[in-house]
Every structure is written in structure tokens, then in C-alpha cells.
Design goal:
This protein is of the alpha+beta class. The protein folds into four domains: 113 residues, 2-Layer Sandwich (Heat Shock Protein 90); 136 residues, Ribosomal Protein S5, domain 2, CATH 3.30.230.80; 80 residues, Rossmann fold, CATH 3.40.50.11260; 115 residues, Four Helix Bundle (Hemerythrin (Met), subunit A) (Up-down Bundle). The protein is 33% helix and 23% strand. Strands 13-12-15-14-17-16 form a six-stranded mixed sheet. Strands 7-8-11-9-10 form a five-stranded mixed sheet.
């Protein structure tokens, strides 16, 4: 910023100036490194001329591009479009050639002095004076997008820190939104002069989808990027904007449920990251009511508040299940018992959904419980009375060895012969999530094989233990692989599984 930045592209600068009423003009001249000279000179008119002698082009830098009229126009529009003083330059203008036939006009290009900058920023104008089309065009230009903004949010604050903001929530998620190359941050201005194109210090990461501009006269134009990150005014503005955006999302959820669900489909994962991320503990209370999950009973997305308000007085926990899709979860054997008791289950289909609930711990004093855990707690209710079948469970464990931590008779299964549940700590969905990071030492959830002792397949295995032990082992291995498939876990050896099934069919 400032005059001396001219030496970034020039090896010599000459300034010729003459003030109003003076007879003498002065020439200031410098090459930037060895001081400067000042001498009297002749100048016909008042004012100041700045003459830059550009550096020679190199392999790395093309300084001659700053002699190109379009390039200069582009730079002025980007960095000085909203300065409150006109910036004029000669630009070729297409016009009808004088004396040409009106029915077949001929055109010519003439250099005309044109005001390049718009001078009055869109965010400085009252909202009632700006059309939807103007907002859309502005959003598309700064976001490099083709969609229309779903939400337009304006802010004008005066006080200890004064600023104006014009913010947009996109109606479509950018293709690279969750990639490392995605450039987040708002455009930052000081009194109409751009300081930074992508200031990521203004908003927390969970609001990285927001586009727009912030303009504050309280920011220094010569502030460095490093100092900007720790600037007090910037933090005050950022906190104010965060509250403003959360309030707008709460209003959208309250007044336009369909619109909010559309927003959540695009950026719900980012909201969840606000809880599961590094600063989640400080934000979970503020963000928990913005979360949406698919309901087993309502067959639609619901909030945690809506779930709790429907709970029976006797229900102690908020039950959930994580999986790849709502349809896949709905067919899990573990859901049968809770459905019979008319318990609502939240279906978690996002990668970080389970992390989010674990960070929350509880909502409205109701703890979260996964129905896929090894120990299903129904809050003191009587569960299915079963025969533990210790000999059968020992046989299954011996057959499968280290593949499972435990084999147990299930209290939750009704029509299915088997299911796989996770031990304490890591869930299966978390295991899948961490697997994507290709960690040197893969993390793995404990596998507990639950068997429905009333099911004919399990009873057939039990009968074969004495009559045909090899066949009983075949049953155990097939049931184990089936449990993996139901849980959405990969088969350790798909070829072996097909061989086992083929052997059983002989």
C-alpha cells in the first residue's frame, strides 16, 4: 500500500507537482535505493504528475503488462473500485462513425476519458435501494459463481468498531468446497480500498461457505497480513458477524424449513464441524439447535429439540444409529427392538455426525446412546429374557478366534439370525472414517457377534456341534461374514465367503 509500492514495478519514479497559486513547480526523482533529488522545474498547470519508469521484463516477471490498458483497468476495478474519488483513464470506446449510413452504420474505436471506478460500493447503499439483480450480479462476481445466493445478509455497525458488511450464503455448494484448495474468507476493505481478497480471520471455519465483503474505516491500510490476523478490531468484527450469521440461520430454520433443509444439504457438514472441530466445546451450545438428523418415525429431517419434545417421560436416552444412508440403517437388525417399543431413532449419515453427538454428550439433559453399541441400554426397561447358551457362544468364539472379541446371545434380535455390534469406544462408522486417512496403524472397533438363539439358522448350528462339527464351523463363519455385510464392513476374504456358501449348498 502507499506510494513506495510503486518501486515494486518501477526502477525510477518522477513526481512533478505545482500547487494552486504558485509560480514554481518541483520535480522529485528517485530510483528507490539511493535517496532522492528535488529541483525546481516548469509545469504549465497545477496538480501532480507521477511518472513511473517500469523495470525491464525478466523470466519471472512481466512488468510490461502494466502498460496494457485492460490490465490497468482490471487492477483499478479490483482494488480501487469503491474509492470515493473518480479514477479516470483513456479507454477505447466503440461508436458510430460520423457520416455513415444509419441503416448500415460503420463503427470506430476512439479513446475517451472514462471513469473506471464505481465510487459508491453496493454495501454503502441502503438495502431498499438495491435490487435483487444487483445483489445477484455482485455475488457472482466476488464468488466466481453462477448460482444465485440463497441468503443476502447486510450489517451496518457503529460504535467502538465501525463497519459495514454484505454477506451471501450460496444456494449451491461449490465443487471444491471440502477440498484443501478451496479459498475461504471475505473480501476486506478499509474505507473503500481493498486490503485482502480472502481474509480467513473474519469468520470461523464452520462458516467458510459465506461469501461477501467487510468494510471498516478503523482498519489501517498499511497493516501487514501477519498483524492483521491478530488485530483487535478484526476480532471484534468477526465475533459480531458470527452472531449475525447464526441468528440468520436460526431465522431461516424457524421461518422457512424447506429453505433451511436445502441449506443443510449443502453445508450441514460444516455446521457439524463447528461442534466437532478444535473450538467445538465453546460453540456447541450455540450450534446444537442448528443440527438436523433423519428420524426413523417422522421419515424426515428433525432437530434435537423436536426429538426431545416427542420423547415419552419414561425414555431416558436419545437413541441414534450411524450408517451410509437412512435406507441402510433402517434395515439394520438392531433397529427392530426399538421400533417395536415405538422409540424414535436418529439416523446419522454424515461422516462427522457421530463425532458431533459425542462432543455434545447430551441434549436437554438426555444422553445420546448408539443402538449399534454392544450394550444396549433401554433406560431400565425389561429386555428380552433369553437362554445365554454359553457352550454355543464358546464354540463360535473358538471357531472365529481373534476376528471377534466376543460371541453372545442377543437380547435385541427378533427376525434376524445375527448382527455385529461394537465394543466400548470406537464405533464402526468411526473405523470407516479413520480408514480414509490411511493411518500407519489402522484403528479398529471391537467386534461383538450377537446371535439370535431362537433363529433356525443358529439352532441348526447348535445341533451340528455334536453331529457334524465341520458343518457347525461352516455355519459360524458364514454367519460372521453376514454380520459384517449387514454392518457395512468389508469382508476379509470375499472369495472365501463364496466358497463357504457353495460348500453349504452341496
Amino acid at each position: 500500500m502507499g506510494f513506495y509500492s510503486a518501486f515494486m514495478v518501477a526502477d525510477e519514479i518522477t513526481v512533478v507537482t505545482k500547487k494552486y497559486g504558485a509560480e514554481t513547480a518541483y520535480r522529485w526523482q528517485s530510483s528507490g535505493a539511493d535517496g532522492y533529488t528535488v529541483a525546481e522545474c516548469e509545469k504549465g498547470s497545477v496538480g501532480t504528475d507521477v511518472i513511473m519508469h517500469l523495470k525491464a521484463d525478466t523470466d519471472e516477471e512481466k512488468y510490461s503488462e502494466y502498460l496494457d490498458g485492460y490490465r490497468l483497468y482490471e487492477l483499478v476495478k479490483k482494488y480501487s473500485d469503491y474509492i470515493r474519488y473518480p479514477i479516470r483513464m483513456l479507454r477505447p470506446t466503440r461508436r458510430v462513425k460520423e457520416g455513415s449510413d444509419p441503416e448500415k452504420p460503420e463503427y470506430e474505436y476512439v479513446d475517451e476519458m472514462t471513469t473506471v471506478n464505481s465510487m459508491v460500493p453496493l454495501w454503502q447503499r441502503p438495502r431498499g435501494e438495491v435490487t435483487d439483480e444487483e445483489y445477484e450480479k455482485f455475488y457472482q462476481s466476488i464468488a466466481h459463481a453462477f448460482d444465485k445466493p440463497q441468503r443476502v445478509i447486510t450489517a451496518s455497525v457503529e460504535g467502538a468498531v465501525t463497519y459495514k458488511a454484505l454477506l451471501f450464503i450460496p444456494s449451491q455448494r461449490p465443487m471444491d468446497f471440502y477440498s484443501e484448495g478451496y479459498e475461504k474468507g471475505l473480501q476486506l476493505y478499509s474505507a473503500g480500498v481493498m486490503i485482502m481478497d480472502h481474509c480467513d480471520a473474519l469468520l470461523p471455519d464452520y462458516l467458510r461457505f459465506v461469501r461477501g465483503v467487510v468494510d471498516s474505516p478503523d482498519l489501517s491500510l498499511n497493516i501487514s497480513r501477519e498483524l492483521l490476523q491478530h488485530d483487535r478490531q478484526l476480532k471484534v468484527i468477526g465475533n459480531s458477524l458470527e452472531k449475525k450469521l447464526r441468528a440468520d440461520l436460526e431465522k431461516l430454520l424457524r421461518d422457512d424449513r424447506e429453505g433451511y433443509e436445502k441449506f443443510y444439504e449443502n453445508f450441514g457438514r460444516a455446521i457439524g464441524f463447528g461442534i466437532a472441530g478444535p473450538d467445538g466445546l465453546s460453540r456447541k451450545e450455540a450450534l446444537q439447535d442448528l443440527l438436523l438428523f433423519y428420524s426413523s418415525t417422522e421419515k424426515k429431517l428433525v432437530t434435537l429439540r423436536e426429538y426431545v419434545d416427542r420423547m415419552a417421560e419414561s425414555q431416558k436416552y436419545i437413541y441414534y444409529a450411524a450408517g451410509e444412508s437412512a435406507a441402510a440403517i433402517d434395515h439394520l437388525p438392531q433397529t427392530e427392538l426399538l421400533k417395536d417399543k415405538n422409540y424414535e431413532i436418529l439416523y446419522l449419515t454424515g461422516e462427522t455426525d457421530e463425532f458431533v453427538l459425542q462432543m455434545l454428550g447430551k441434549y436437554a439433559d438426555k444422553e445420546f446412546r448408539s443402538i449399534l453399541d454392544g450394550e444396549l441400554d433401554l433406560g431400565g426397561e425389561e429386555q428380552k429374557d433369553i437362554d445365554e447358551k454359553p457352550e454355543l457362544m464358546q464354540f463360535v468364539k473358538e471357531t472365529l478366534g481373534d476376528k471377534i472379541k466376543e460371541a453372545r446371545a442377543s437380547r435385541r434380535l427378533k427376525t434376524h439370525p445375527v448382527c455385529m455390534t461394537a465394543g466400548e469406544g470406537l464405533s464402526f462408522e468411526m473405523e470407516k472414517y479413520f480408514k480414509n486417512f490411511q493411518m500407519p496403524t489402522p484403528v479398529k472397533a471391537d467386534r461383538i457377534l450377537e446371535l439370535n438363539t431362537d433363529h433356525p439358522a443358529v439352532q441348526a448350528m447348535e445341533a451340528a456341534m455334536t453331529s457334524d462339527r465341520a458343518k457347525a464351523e461352516l455355519y459360524a463363519k458364514i454367519l460372521y461374514d453376514q454380520a459384517l455385510l449387514i454392518a457395512g464392513l468389508p469382508l476379509e476374504d470375499p472369495s472365501e465367503y463364496t466358497d463357504l456358501v457353495a460348500e453349504l449348498m452341496k
